[in-house]
Specification:
The complex is a heterodimer of chains A (about 160) and B (about 500). Chain A folds into two domains: about 60 residues; about 70 residues, no CATH class. Chain A has about 160 residues and is mostly helical. The radius of gyration of chain A is 25 Å and the shape is flat. The termini of chain A are far apart. Chain A has five helices and no strands. Chain B is mainly α and about 500 residues long. Chain B has one domain. A two-stranded antiparallel ribbon of chain B has the order 1-2. In chain B, helix 4 packs antiparallel against helix 13. The radius of gyration of chain B is 22 Å and the shape is globular. Classes of the chains: A mainly alpha (about 160), B mainly alpha (about 500). At the A-B interface, helix 1, helix 2, helix 3, helix 4 and helix 5 of A face helix 3, helix 8, helix 9, helix 18 and helix 19 of B.
């Protein structure tokens, strides 16, 4: 089974859970006076759930015969994912998660300079004498713009300072 | 209209707004030139900045400037590197890159700039004429018609975005609508589908979603496949002049494509990409035999056509946004989100309640086009140096700006985790060829769609409004046909290929 149908299967699961929520759990919480309304909070979700389940089934069962365009080369062929720089991409995503977790405790300046430096290192940059100053200056400039010009507070320093 | 123009002139010619246009165009060109960053990603990144400005007209002017600049920057990288930064400028590279290979890069850029300028300006004139007409009709619309119109818009977007694969596009639209129901709505003061999580109480953040759908997957694709970010030294760009004969040759092309591009842009779901390809194809078909041979090998007509059409279409896509409040493309959907965040509801009332916003945007379109021609074109040899930034530096910065954009909006680190999670999901969806723009448009229209649906249900005490109002019924029928007909035709074509006789 191709990836797009697996995805449709996952979406089908989501739609079923969503539909279960809309059909069976939401209406119990509804106060009596609202039950006189022709539209309930669950009405629109019910319609969406039914449509989403039907559409997902169409894709999973392959009912729509897609016009396959063989001349079109895909951007990235997911079947040969390991041929690409998958490790780098995953490391960068991990770095983003680390940034999200460290932003508050480590402070904006440290977290951002670290993110920019390590991001470039992951991609293969080794000229540290250029990289680190660039990362620090960029961090400072962005912090000044966000804090000074846009007026949004970002804690600059780690929590203990 | 004259009165409106004066309001617009006085609003747009304030020092701040002029600075906004110029800054927007420059930023747009600068970033749009980077391969892999389209107008959608750039506008998504700029939204936090625009929202903090606070003044809706200034914010919209800035974003419109960024939009134009991005399209222009995209054509620059198409011409110089054969690496279109934006889908709408792919057709530009067909003839622009061969011209640059012949050493005519300067001339190609001038033609691109002039065509964009004319396309954008003529588009703005058409917008000025048609938008008030459409919005006076739209004032007669009832919430039932609005509901039906939005359904038509969504199904048109699904039908166009998923050419040959409508089910996937419909799926994405529905997923967007489903995501819009998460959180506490205005109609019913109870949280829905939050799974008890406080972070979902106010629903998904639209900026985070926009970043996760467009900017993040682009960056991941750039990492995965280094070949996508073609690098160059910016090249030598000289001799920006064009001759009188060349101007004569492209003038009719520009005239035709401005009008054609504008009307394609007005259609929901079509937009700049389709307009540019169609413009290229039409001009090739009506050219003479000798000229046809030049197409693809550096024909100036082949360069002027898509460039005019994509700018005119960008302008055209503002018509449904400003008059109906229904975005026709991913980019205008992001603009709509920004407007709502600024407490402005685009729609037919916009011209009555906030005429200065409407007219300032139109005037700033003229100014934006002028800025692109007068300021950006001479600066191009310098701006093109940005193409020489090594990707090792570029990619961490793109990722950082997506993170910053969604953090500034919410001031909440959980938002960043949601961003990464949805970004990964969006990348996987792109692997499997699911279109992502319908998801975002569905998400943005979801709330409005439900509000209008609920209002009509309450007014007619049930679904009777569909039968009571012929226009609603008609629009809904069109919506169904838009989705069903393409897949039915694809099915029949396939059946015929397999040698199965038709039923009729």
């Amino acid at each position: 089974m191709a990836l797009d149908r697996w995805i449709a299967l996952i979406i089908l699961g989501i739609a079923l859970a969503y539909g279960y929520g809309a059909f069976f759990t939401m209406d119990q919480l509804l106060p009596p006076f609202m039950q006189r309304n022709p539209i309930w909070p669950s009405t629109f979700p019910k319609v969406l759930a039914v449509l989403a389940i039907l559409t997902a089934l169409v894709i999973v069962l392959g009912l729509e015969k897609a016009e396959t365009d063989d001349t079109k080369t895909p951007d990235i062929d997911y079947r040969r994912l390991t041929d690409y720089n998958l490790g780098q991409a995953l490391l960068l995503l991990g770095l983003m998660v680390a940034y999200a977790l460290l932003l508050r405790p480590a402070g904006f300046l440290l977290a951002t300079a670290g993110f920019l430096t390590f991001g470039a290192v992951v991609l293969g940059e080794r000229k540290f004498h250029i990289l680190i100053p660039v990362a620090c200056v960029a961090t400072g400039v962005v912090w000044y713009l966000v804090e000074g010009v846009l007026g949004i507070f970002l804690r600059p320093l780690p929590f203990f300072m | 209209m004259l009165e409106g123009l004066l309001i617009g002139l006085s609003a747009a010619f304030s020092v701040t707004n002029l600075a906004m246009v110029i800054a927007g165009c420059l930023i747009g060109t600068f970033i749009g030139m980077l391969p892999g960053l389209g107008p959608m990603s750039i506008i998504a990144i700029m939204i936090p900045v625009a929202i903090t400005i606070g003044d809706p007209s200034a914010a919209l002017i800035l974003l419109a400037g960024v939009y134009y600049g991005a399209i222009f920057g995209g054509s620059t990288s198409s011409i110089l590197l054969n690496a279109p930064g934006v889908a709408g400028t792919v057709a530009t590279s067909f003839d622009g890159y061969p011209m640059a290979r012949k050493g005519l890069a300067g001339k190609a850029l001038t033609i691109a700039a002039i065509s964009s300028f004319c396309g954008g300006t003529i588009g703005a004139i058409l917008l000025m004429v048609f938008a008030p007409m459409l919005s006076s009709v739209a004032l007669l619309f009832h919430s039932a018609e609005y509901f039906a119109l939005m359904v038509v818009g969504l199904s048109a977007i699904a039908a166009f975005a998923g050419t040959g694969n409508v089910a996937k596009a419909v799926m994405m639209t529905l997923l967007g609508l489903i995501m819009a129901t998460v959180g506490e709505g205005a109609l019913f003061n109870m949280p829905r589908f939050t799974m008890g999580l406080m972070d979902l109480q106010s629903g998904f953040s639209f900026i985070t979603l926009a970043m996760a759908m467009f900017a993040l997957p682009e960056a991941i694709f750039l990492v995965l496949n280094p070949g996508r970010s073609a690098q160059g030294d910016g090249g030598k760009i000289e001799n920006l002049r064009i001759t009188r004969d060349e101007a004569k040759a492209i003038a009719p092309v520009i005239g035709r494509q401005s009008i054609q591009g504008f009307f394609i842009g007005v259609l929901p779901g079509a937009g700049a990409t389709i307009a540019s390809f169609l413009g290229y194809a039409v001009e090739r078909n009506i050219a003479t035999k000798e000229e046809q041979k030049e197409f693809g090998h550096g024909s100036i007509k082949g360069l002027a056509a898509p460039e005019t059409a994509n700018n005119a279409a960008c302008t055209g896509s503002f018509v449904p946004l400003l008059t109906l409040g229904i975005p026709g493309s991913g980019t205008t959907a992001i603009l709509l989100g920004a407007l709502i965040a600024l407490n402005v509801t685009p729609g037919p009332r916009l011209m009555i309640d906030n005429p200065q916003i409407f007219w300032a945007v139109i005037i700033s379109m003229y100014i934006g086009n002028l800025v692109l021609l007068v300021l950006n074109l001479p600066l191009i040899p310098y701006i093109a140096k940005v193409l020489a930034i090594p990707r090792n530096y570029l990619i961490p910065f793109i990722l950082f700006f997506t993170l910053m954009g969604s953090y500034i909006g919410q001031n909440n680190a959980t938002e960043l985790l949601i961003l990464v999670g949805m970004g990964i999901a969006a990348t996987v969806l792109r692997f499997a060829d699911y279109p992502l723009a319908p998801l975002l448009i569905g998400f943005i229209l979801g709330r409005m769609l439900e509000d209008n649906f609920a209002r009509s249900m309450q007014l007619y005490d049930g679904v009777g409004f569909i039968l009571d109002r012929p226009m609603t019924l008609g629009l809904l029928v069109i919506a169904v046909l838009l989705v069903v007909v393409p897949s039915y035709r694809a099915r029949r074509a396939k059946a015929r290929q397999e040698g199965i006789a038709d039923g009729d």
